[in-house]
Amino acid sequence: MRDAAGRTRDHRDLGGGTIQVDLRRGEETVVYRAGDRPHLEVGPVPCAPADPWGLPS
Questions:
Q1: What is the tens place of the pLDDT at every residue in 30-51?
Q2: What pTM value is reported for the model?
Q3: Which of 22, 15, 25, 26 is nearest to 1 (CA)?
Q4: Do 29 and 21 form a contact (C-beta atoms < 8 A)?
Q5: 31: nearest Cα among 12, 46, 50
Q6: Cross-strand partners of 8
Q7: Mean pLDDT taken over the chain
Q8: Per-residue b/e over 41-54, b at no fewer than 16 CB within 10 Å?
Q9: What value does the mean pLDDT take over residues 12-30?
Q10: How far apart are the C-alpha atoms of 20 and 12, rounded to whole Å?
């Protein structure tokens, strides 16, 4: 596992498809399969009107 600068990141395979990535305060990570290059973009998400907390009005 490498960061955006190509440095190896500390991580552990906990089994069952779970990994643990060591991060410092304020850091974040995105985990994806080797060979994938996901398009990451922050933007508005379309939504429809809904009742508060999913409860009927």
A1: 888 888 888 888 888 888 887 7
A2: 0.51
A3: 22
A4: yes
A5: 12
A6: 2
A7: 83
A8: eeeeeeeeeeeeee
A9: 88
A10: 5
